[in-house]
Every structure is written in C-alpha cells, then in structure tokens.
Amino acid sequence: QITLKTNQLNDLTEKLYEKRREVHKFKKQLEALHSEKITLQRSLENTTQERDNFRILQAESAHQTQQLTTEISANEVKINSLNLKIEHLNNNIKELQSELKNKQNLVASLRKDLREIKEKNEMLAKAISNDEFRFMKMGHELEEMRKERNLVGLQMVRRNDEIVVIKEKLQIAQNALDNGTTQYNQRVEDIRLLKKEISNLYTERECLKHAIKSTADMRKEIVRLQRALNQERIRIRALTEDAKTPTGVHRWRILKGEDPTKYELLEKLQVLQK
C-alpha cells in the first residue's frame, strides 16, 4: 500500500507540474489578450479623433451654407441683375435645407457647437453690413461657391464611405473584444478550477502523510489483536473441552453472553477503519 501511495504521489506531483505549466501558458495568453485590448483601445481613440475631425468639417460646411443664406437674404434688393442666378441658388439652397433637415438627427450632439457658430455668424453679419462694396463681385463668388459646394458634396460622400468603413472596423474590433472577454472569463474559470484541484491535491497529500505515519501504529495494533485472538481461541478450546467432558460439579457455571451496543460497534468500526 505504501508503494502504491508513493506511486500515486509521484503521479499527482507530475500532474501538479503539468497544471502549473498550463497555468503559465494561460497567463501568457492573458498577457497577449491584454496587449491586443490596448491596441484596440488605441485604434478606437484614433477613430474617435477622425470622427471629431469629420464633425468639425461638417460644421464648417454648415457654417458656409448659412453664411451664403445670410448674404443672399441681406442683398436680395441690390442684386436685381442676378435674379435668375439667385433663383437657381435658392433652389439649390432649398435642396441643401432639405438635406440639413434630414441630417438634424445626426447633428443633435453638435447643438452646443452650433450655438457658438451662430454667435460667430452674427458677428460676421455685422462685418458683412460694413462691407457692402463687395457685393459687385457676388457673381464670381457665387460661381466659386458652386464649385466649392460640389467639392463639399464629394467630400461628404467620401466621408460617408469612410464612416461606413470605420463602423465596420469598429464592429470587427467589438466582436474581437467580446471574444477576448469570453475567453478571458473561461480562462479565469479554468484557473479557479485548477486552484481547487491543487488544494484538493494538497489535502490528499496531507492525508497520505498521516496515513503513512499511522501504518506503523496499525501494524503494532494488528500484532496485538492477533495475539489477543490466539489467546481467546485457546481459552475457547479449553472451555469447549471442559464443557464436553466435565470433571466436577463445582466447575459448572452458567454461560452468559451479551451483544455490544451500537455505539461500541461504531467505535470499533471507526478504529478498524483508521
């Protein structure tokens, strides 16, 4: 039994070393996941910065459109020669206003910035009222603004495409983060189970140590019990022979026997099991 227990102890120690190696591997994997998480956070910060830059460009374009509307509304009386061009511009402005109404849901987060831009627009309106002599060059400026509007439209389309690509990248990164968190939770659960197994192995080792220490006492107890058994067998043989061939009346006696109580039987069983 001692050799079997020692072999079991050796097997358990080998398993312990293997489990420790696995725990070390899990730690390395967790560190790699942590580094991936940091890189993903950095990429998220870059994307947020790009989004903020795009919002700033959108605000500037909105500011330019509002500046055009204010300049056109303030100078409708003095630009009778450019009524046809202004009507075309009004149609374009109406289309832009319809687009702006559709995009008001997206610009809800930028209302605070728009308030500041309105204040700047009022200052610019005052500056425009002082600069009335520039209205003779409105034709050329309007043509340039058309070109700029077309460029802004192209930029908006490009930015929308970039936003779609960034959203896809964010979705991929979010999925990777979710997978990383699930794997991390699984590894934490595995580590907890391994810790329990290690604690159980420590307790088994302590029990085996106590069992190995108690084997010598058990051997002595077995020898003593065997001696007592032999003495009791000899006494029983002598009594049976005396009972079969009685030699005298004075040696007769009443045989008495009682079963031990359950408590005594349980104590004996526990002693024998130990």
From TrEMBL:
GO terms for cellular component: cytoskeleton. It comes from the Eukaryota. InterPro entries: CFAP58_CC. Residues 2-208 form the Cilia- and flagella-associated protein 58 central coiled coil domain. Residues 9-127, 191-242 form a coiled coil. It holds the Pfam family CFAP58_CC. Keywords: Coiled coil. This is Cilia- and flagella-associated protein 58 central coiled coil domain-containing protein. It comes from Drosophila mojavensis (Fruit fly). The lineage of its organism: Eukaryota, Metazoa, Ecdysozoa, Arthropoda, Hexapoda.
